[in-house]
């Protein structure tokens, strides 16, 4: 299992000790409603099942400074290398999602040799759309997609990121 490092963050394998933090942060409807597959309300059992099923491409986002668990980021090889991320609400607005996503996609491009990755954002989540644009991802179609926490389908914009666009954007 890889451990990835960036300036302020460590992306490390998720572990059993993360269950309480995951339960607290995903128990916030404003986090859960922006994610496709997260149930709401969210129980400690949901977190434990999630951790038990975790594979090599699911990472906890940990702050270097104090070791605090901030959220999660993951790549899904069986979904055409879709990636997704979330942070507990106190950690929003500090550039952590962009920093974690930059590190994860570098891992996908360089270490896993994937030519492209993609991610979707619900239409009422412009902050996530911004994270993806800052990486260099481009709009690649939109569709209605199930949102488990809301119990309805929500318009979701898919964003495709190629290695060339990523490198160009980071150099700009
Ligand atoms: C979306 C989320 C991951 C963003 O995390 P973050 O660490 O705050 O993101 P960053 O600070 O790296 O970047 C957010 C960008 O969006 C901008 N932004 C924030 N709120 C915004 C809003 N309401 N409208 C438009 N832009 C917004 C920020 O200013 C920033 O852009 P900037 O660097 O150009 O100023 C976080 O809010 C979150 O976990 N939300 C709940 C779960 C979720 O939405 N996950 C993503 C699913 S696709």
Task: Please provide a brief summary of the model.
33% of the residues lie in helices and 32% in strands. It is an alpha+beta fold. The N and C termini lie far apart (32 Å).
Describe the structure.
The protein is an alpha+beta fold and 172 residues long. It has one domain: Aminopeptidase (3-Layer(aba) Sandwich), CATH 3.40.630.30. It has 6 helices and 8 strands; from the N terminus they run E-E-H-H-H-E-E-E-H-E-H-E-E-H. It has a 5-stranded antiparallel β-sheet with strand order 1-2-3-4-5, sandwiched between helices. A 3-stranded antiparallel β-sheet has the order 6-8-7. 31% of the residues are buried.
Key terms:
Aminopeptidase; alpha+beta; 172 residues; single chain
Structural topology:
Blueprint: E1 4-5, E2 9-13, H1 19-26, H2 29-32, H3 44-52, E3 58-63, E4 69-76, E5 82-87, H4 96-111, E6 116-122, H5 126-135, E7 138-147, E8 152-162, H6 163-171
Antiparallel strand pairs: 1-2, 2-3, 3-4, 4-5, 6-8, 7-8
The chain binds coenzyme A.
Tally of strands: 8
Order of helices and strands: EEHHHEEEHEHEEH
Number of helices: 6
Radius of gyration based on Cα positions: 15 Å
User: What is the CATH level 1 assignment?
Assistant: Alpha Beta
**Biggest beta-sheet profile:** 5 strands, antiparallel
| CATH architecture grouping | 3-Layer(aba) Sandwich
Unreliable sequence segments: none
Structural class: alpha+beta
Task: Specify the oligomeric state.
Answer: single chain
Total discrete domains? 1
- Nearest-integer average pLDDT: 97
CATH topology: Aminopeptidase
C-alpha end-to-end distance: 32 Å
Helical coverage, percent range? 25-40%
């Amino acid at each position: 299992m890889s451990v990835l490092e960036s300036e302020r963050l460590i992306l490390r394998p998720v572990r059993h000790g993360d269950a309480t933090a995951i339960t607290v942060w995903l128990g916030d409807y404003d986090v859960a409603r922006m994610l496709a597959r997260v149930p709401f309300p969210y129980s400690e059992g949901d977190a434990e099942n999630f951790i038990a099923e975790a594979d090599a491409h699911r990472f906890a986002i940990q702050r270097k400074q104090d070791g605090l668990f901030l959220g999660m980021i993951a790549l899904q090889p069986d979904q055409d290398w879709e990636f997704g991320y979330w942070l507990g609400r106190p950690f929003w607005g500090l550039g952590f999602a962009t920093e974690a996503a930059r590190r994860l996609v570098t891992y996908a491009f360089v270490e896993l040799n994937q030519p492209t990755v993609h991610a979707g954002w619900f239409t009422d989540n412009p902050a996530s759309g911004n994270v993806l644009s800052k990486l260099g991802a481009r709009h690649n179609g939109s569709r209605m997609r199930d949102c488990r926490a809301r119990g309805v389908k929500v318009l979701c914009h898919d964003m495709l990121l190629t290695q060339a666009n990523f490198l160009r954007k980071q150099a700009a």
